[in-house]
Automatic annotation (TrEMBL):
Pfam family, one: BPD_transp_1
Subcellular location: Cell membrane
Organism in which the protein naturally occurs: Kribbella orskensis
Classification via Gene3D superfamilies: MetI-like
Domain of life: Bacteria
Entry keywords, A to Z: Cell membrane, Membrane, Sugar transport, Transmembrane, Transmembrane helix, Transport
Residue span(s) of domain ABC transmembrane type-1: 87-278
SUPFAM superfamilies the record matches: MetI-like (SSF161098)
Keyword ATP-binding attributed: no
InterPro entries cross-referenced by the UniProt entry: MetI-like, MetI-like_sf
Membrane topology of this protein: Multi-pass membrane protein
Protein name per its UniProtKB record: Multiple sugar transport system permease protein/raffinose/stachyose/melibiose transport system permease protein
């Protein structure tokens, strides 16, 4: 064997023994650091799940893990607050809100990112200014506006508030995703004779799935867990979504903790399903800005 061949065979083997060790050491250190945070974050959910399956007289005096598991809390939550009705209200209100926000956010985000029209930057800044107002400060004006339009105590009025209040932030996110796409794609599609809406629907929109997934998850969480506006606008109990009704399980002097935590556990299921279904796209969307050159 010549000297050159000896060098070629020896050089690749030098770092082989060190890389796995450094990799395992770094992975172990990251696991050691992150594991306590994971336990801390998971503890409230585990406590809620265990509380929903324990007897009412052992909530604060029993052990962390129930000695006897019971599903009486789920039965109480299902029947006492008409859980199926309000769960369906939350599902359809959240679904319509997410779809409405996506329509406005994608169309306006594409326009602000890729189209040239008068006062584009001025209009964009004005839309961003709406994000500076806290929602609690707008409750009274919005309440009076809905009352003047005859939409108070209606789910249509609630949908208008949800969509109009969430669209600016979603538009801001989608504009950032559209800006990452090269202008050459749009120019090539225009040369081929495609209309602006055809270019948006067939060329641009499929490339922004990570951005759409990000908006869907954020908007779904925000709408599903919203409490204050829904409880203020809707006075008819049958029209209320799930979260304000779950709050009614908290009594002034006593609270049925197994029923309350059982209802909360059931209400978490759609959130988990949506996130698991869109997790890969969501992570890709969050990392897009980090890897963009």
């Amino acid at each position: 064997m010549t000297t050159t061949e000896t060098i070629r065979t020896a050089t690749p083997t030098e770092p082989v023994g060190h890389k796995p060790f450094r990799f395992l050491l770094g992975k172990s250190f990251a696991t050691f650091v992150l594991l306590p945070f994971c336990v801390l974050m998971a503890f409230p959910f585990v406590w809620m799940l265990l509380t929903s399956m324990r007897e009412a007289n052992t909530i604060f005096g029993g052990t962390f893990f129930p000695r006897k598991f019971t599903f009486a809390g789920y039965s109480t939550a299902w029947t006492s607050i008409q859980f199926p009705l309000h769960f369906w209200n939350s599902v359809w209100i959240t679904s319509v809100t997410v779809i409405g926000v996506l329509v406005f956010a994608t169309l306006s985000g594409y326009a602000f990112a890729k189209l040239d029209f008068p006062f584009r930057n001025t209009l964009f800044v004005l839309l961003l200014l709406t994000l500076m107002m806290p929602s609690t400060a707008l409750i009274i004006p919005l309440y009076l506006q809905l009352k003047a339009f005859g939409l108070l105590d209606t789910q249509v009025g609630l949908l208008i508030l949800y969509i109009s209040g969430s669209a600016p932030f979603a538009m801001f996110l989608m504009r950032a995703f559209f800006q990452t796409l090269p202008d050459e794609l749009i120019e090539a599609a225009r040369v081929d004779g495609g209309s602006e809406f055809t270019i948006f629907r067939r060329v641009i929109l499929p490339l922004t799935r990570p951005g759409i997934a990000t908006v869907v998850i954020f908007q779904f969480l925000q709408t599903w867990n919203e409490f204050l506006i829904a409880d203020t606008v809707l006075r008819n109990t049958d029209s209320l979504p799930l979260q304000p009704v779950l709050f009614s399980l908290m009594g002034q002097y006593s609270t049925d903790w197994p029923a309350l935590t059982a209802g909360l556990t059931l209400s978490v299921i759609p959130v988990v399903v949506v996130y698991v279904r869109m997790q890969r796209q969501f992570v890709a969307g969050m990392m897009l800005g980090a890897v963009k050159s």
